[in-house]
Amino acid sequence: MIPDYGNYKKLADSLKSASALLNLERKSQLHQDIITICNHLVNPSFRVAVFGPFNHGKSTLLNAMLGNRTLPIDLIPTTGASITVKYGSDVRTRIMLVDGTEIYRSGTEILQQFAILDGNRQMRKDVASVEVFCPHPFLETGVEFLDLPGTNDRDEQDNLVREQLLSADLVIQLLDARQLMTLGERENLRDWLLDRGIKTVIFVANFINLLEPDEQKQVQNRLLFVAESFRAELPPGFSNLYRVDALPALRARLKGDVAAANSSGLAAFETALQNIVGILQPNRGSVRLPRVEAIASQVQHSLKAKIDPIVIELKSFDNKQNSKIEIKQKAANLIYKGFTTSVGELRDWLALPKLLTKYQADAAVALAENNFKFWQTNTLKKDLNQLQLAAVKWLYQAYEFFQEERPQDLLIPFPSEPQVILPPKPSSTDDLSEPGSIAVGGGIGWLLGGPVGAAVVGSISYLLNKNIQKQDEQLAKESYHQDVAKLCITAIEDYLSNFSKQGLSILNEYEQKSDKVICFEVSQEPIEFTNKRENLQQLQNGFNQLLRELEKVKILSNHQFYKEIPKYSNTKIKYSPQPKRVQISPEKDPDVKRQQENTAKNIGTRVESVSTSAPKASPSPRPEEVEAKFRDWELNEEIARMKAEMPSPGFKTAKQQHTTQSNQAPNQPKTQTEKDKITRAYSILGLPANASLAEVKQAYRTLVKKWHPDLFVNQPQLQKQAQEKMHLVNEAYTILSEK
């Protein structure tokens, strides 16, 4: 029984599976070698093959060892098939034909029909195997002899011999002493034996008896040199070179002449052979594994030759796909960032406290002056439209970039125009000098600048500036005008409250719908690449399995395991940068409920908490507003750059572009005019020559914050200077960004 039979069986199966993955031609040398070595790997018998060119006496030597004329011998090449000699109780022959027919005969005469070359020195095409059974005690120990056709005669015979040598545990290389170790024999020894891991070789020299005594001595010295040059891996203490005169040895055996058999060298060779086989046979796995290693190495190289190009092709494809996805992801994240910023600004603007702070005084005055519609259109609507467009533009950016669901416009309607019902007029109207003593004749439709109108407007301003400390009791006394002013203020508060509530609700709903716009679909890959992945997986699995089985039998390999390929899901996936939103009702969230209660509670006291005067000039933007505009500009620039990259076939990432550019020829020398422009641009930004792009960007950012024209809206002269300065700064930044 072969040691580790189970492991050898698995190794043989792995080799066969690898052969199937390679789609080898059935007649190819590698395919035949794999089948041969796999079958031999699990064969319990120990095979001894006799190998050499035609007419070297291979069959004669075997007949001499067997003690009778069992195998066909002649003066011309006769053996036309590989003949396996096994143990049997009597001499008989079994012929297996290619079509499955089995021919079983007593004796060996049938060999003349099936196992020798025909008149044209051709092998029979219909013979699959030839076996001879013989009652020899050496064969009874589990040894098989393999009589191979002679080499150097026909290519077809050479191919058969080369294939069968893999199934031999010990090779007897028969040499002709008359033409010792020809070039062909040396090449066969190297190419057919040593390079294929067949290193258990014994050399037997024949025909020395035909040489003169002086020649025999010279040949003997040469044989020692040849054997030493091709030292076989045999057990220590045994020679790998023997002399046997095959024909005299056969004649001596047939006659029963023991002395003649001894003088022919046969007895000494048989003794050595039986001892060598006795040592190698129990551990024949160590004899066979070097052949497996040689074949497995070819299989591994062939698998790698199929695997590596597919890996490179798929990696290139994946890199391109990932680059596209990364650009889209970055664009989606940038757009989402811009959108959430704009929505946040609009939401902050819609908060009731902010609306009251910014608009309550102006709106109340406009209502008192009967100009509310004009104020709503030219102030509130103008500000709302600007904020709405700022948010909507990001969704149109997303639609243009990803072509998903077309966005809807964000439309926040205004509540109905506030109505004020005047309180009853006081009876006394004599005193025009005291606030509240003048009756209002027909609603609030007084003339701008009239005494009553001015009094009400003044009362609005007074009531909304409640932070005046320690007012005179007479001034604190409520008048009719103050009552009317309070009604205007309350009406505007209700109006803005309804506007805030409705606007925030619409904005929340609009924001929830944005995830259908700011997203993109990762499409399925072409079926061609899906098939390549499946093929690659099979090849790598076969390679790794073979490598594992080789390790189990202690065969080391220079190859590394392929990493397991993650399972590829070829389903359409949508990417959205937006987090999952969870709707929380006020009843379930105490913080939300508390905030709403506080808002409702503050409605009644809003007049006391607001500190805004009558209409005045638009204030200069705060530094954080300028910063927000700059961030908005940066996002637009980045998205525009990515849009430019997307349509181009075979586009590259920024890193790849940099690598490509660095490998190309340097830029053409700039003209003196261009150099002067660049120098001037650095000077405008306050930078040294050859400053980095990051430094240019930072300098530009600093100057924008310092010289943005919106910072000087109330200073016409300075605003004009700022506009001129920003023109130069923008021009310098463009020059240095594109150089």
Approximately how much beta-strand content do the residues carry?
A: 5-15%
How would you state the average pLDDT, rounded? 78
**Tally of helical runs:** 25
Query: Whole-number radius of gyration?
Result: 51 Å
List the uncertain runs.
Answer: 429-452, 467-477, 582-618, 647-667
* Structural class category: alpha/beta
What percent of residues adopt helix (DSSP H or I)?
A: 55-70%
Short description:
The chain is of the alpha/beta class and 739 residues long.
Annotation keywords:
two-stranded antiparallel ribbon, alpha/beta, single chain, 739 residues, nine-stranded mixed β-sheet, 8% strand, 25 helices, 11 strands
Report on the architecture of this protein.
By secondary structure, this protein is of the alpha/beta class. It has helices at 5-22, 29-41, 58-66, 111-114, 137-140, 155-165, 183-193, 213-229, 246-255, 258-263, 266-280, 284-350, 352-368, 372-402, 451-463, 473-476, 480-513, 527-552, 590-603, 606-609, 623-645, 654-663, 672-684, 693-707, 716-738; strands at residues 46-51, 83-87, 92-97, 102-106, 127-134, 143-147, 170-176, 201-206, 241-243, 520-522, 573-575. Helix 3 (58-66) runs parallel beside helix 9 (246-255), helix 13 packs across helix 17 (480-513) and helix 24 packs antiparallel against helix 25.
Which helices and strands occur, and which strands form pairs?
Blueprint lengths: L4 H18 L6 H13 L4 E6 L6 H9 L16 E5 L4 E6 L4 E5 L4 H4 L12 E8 L2 H4 L2 E5 L7 H11 L4 E7 L6 H11 L7 E6 L6 H17 L11 E3 L2 H10 L2 H6 L2 H15 L3 H67 L1 H17 L3 H31 L48 H13 L9 H4 L3 H34 L6 E3 L4 H26 L20 E3 L14 H14 L2 H4 L13 H23 L8 H10 L8 H13 L8 H15 L8 H23 L1
Parallel strand pairs: 1-6, 1-7, 2-5, 7-8, 8-9
Antiparallel strand pairs: 2-6, 3-4, 3-5, 10-11
